[in-house]
Design brief:
alpha+beta, Aminopeptidase, five-stranded mixed beta sheet
Length: 93
């Protein structure tokens, strides 16, 4: 599997070869990254690909060290609830 940030499309992608498995759309305003929509190709649902693309996106944002995260998407909000070790990245509400 290959993970990539398609900045031109404002989305993180998880692919296997040419096949798109899952995406995570975002909006980056320079200080905060809003993770707005997780989507997994229906043919590939149930394999944890949304969790993989979310985890890798959060890792990339954390590595930059200059952004917080706003989990707009319900899936991403649930992911953060399940990963308390990453909650320091959340934007203040």
């Amino acid at each position: 599997m290959m993970f990539a940030n398609d900045a031109a499309a404002s989305r993180y992608e998880l692919r296997r070869g040419d096949e798109l498995l899952s995406v995570l759309d975002y909006r980056d305003n320079g200080t905060d990254v809003a993770l707005v929509r997780a989507f997994t190709n229906p043919a590939h649902r149930g394999h944890g690909y949304a969790a993989v693309v979310t985890e890798r996106a959060v890792e990339e944002i954390a590595a930059r060290g200059d952004r917080t995260v706003s989990p707009v998407c319900w899936y991403v909000a649930d992911w953060f609830r399940d990963h308390p070790d990453r909650q320091q990245l959340l934007a203040a509400r």
